[in-house]
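queue> holo job accepted (adenosine-2'-5'-diphosphate)
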Amino acid sequence: MSNGSHVAIVGATGAVGTELIQLLEQREFPVRELKLLASPKSAGKVLKFKGEDIRVETLSDSSFKRVDTALFSAGGSTSREYAKFAAGAGAVVIDNSSAFRMEADVPLVVPEINPADIQKHRGIIANPNCTTIIVLMALYPLHLAFRVKRAIASSYQAVSGAGAKAIHELSVQSKSFCSGEPVSPEVFPHPIAFNVLPQVDVFLDGGYTKEEQKFVNESRKIMHHPTFRASITCVRVPVFRAHSVAVHAEFEQPVSIDRARDALKNFEGLELVDDPSSNKYPMPISAAGKDKCQVGRLRVDSAWDNGLAFWVCGDQLLKGAALNAVQIAELLTK
Ligand code: A2P
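queue> job finished
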């Protein structure tokens, strides 16, 4: 590895970490050296990058010497404990956890929406929540066209959002369920195979979950729209890796389907898949593995004035996490 930057991935063995390694390679990110970090249990494990074997190291305070960019995806507590060592050593941290997202001096960035915000960073840039990114990829172009006031939404979230163990749990439970064997939930509080759980993350006072609250707070920060109001019910479904969200949004200005379609069609990173007459609409199975989020089922909302209803799907591990983080790293190199 010659020119380029020294990149570290914290959580390299996880569901998002694995995607980060692949994306750095596929997108030809200028990597001079790649350091793969995880918990002690993965130390010594060998992962491939551009045909080379890289040995996973145990994350420690001194893991970040000479690192330029540190991509963190090992949960909030790991970020809270170690991001300061990375930033202190001179690296820019791009953090996939919720640890710093709402801090005033931490930009929260979706490159297609608020790329200029990265300039305000002081060592840490936060990657938004996956459901927030996927909804905003469709809501933001509509906001630019008609000025969004509020939204009601329901998510259908893949298990990948809960990590590699959750992906394994859905797989094992599906086989057990089909062969009539008992299932024993470990990652989720109830069986996830052939079930839906109206809970993503922990419950807060007031009855919303933390995931639901993140959506409201993060959307306001990313869109620079402090008066945006939203109510979402986040639901875990037995899907492996793409999230779907049904959104009903009310706008300040009168809406038109033609203008909405144009706004969606022309937005970078978004694909309009909307041909009900031939049963064409986004589905997790068609969004999985794709960089672009997909939007469809677009219609004038019958429940309120100036309303639009739509359905958006996006790969949670890609645009919802790893791809967005790598896009931020790319912006930093420009
Ligand atoms: P490990 O595989 O060694 O446990 P996922 O989101 O798929 O569950 O992955 C979480 C990632 O975060 C894994 O790479 C995991 O490493 C890593 N991780 C979890 N806890 C720590 C920790 N305390 N220190 C370093 N890495 C951690």
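queue> The chain has a mean pLDDT of 97.
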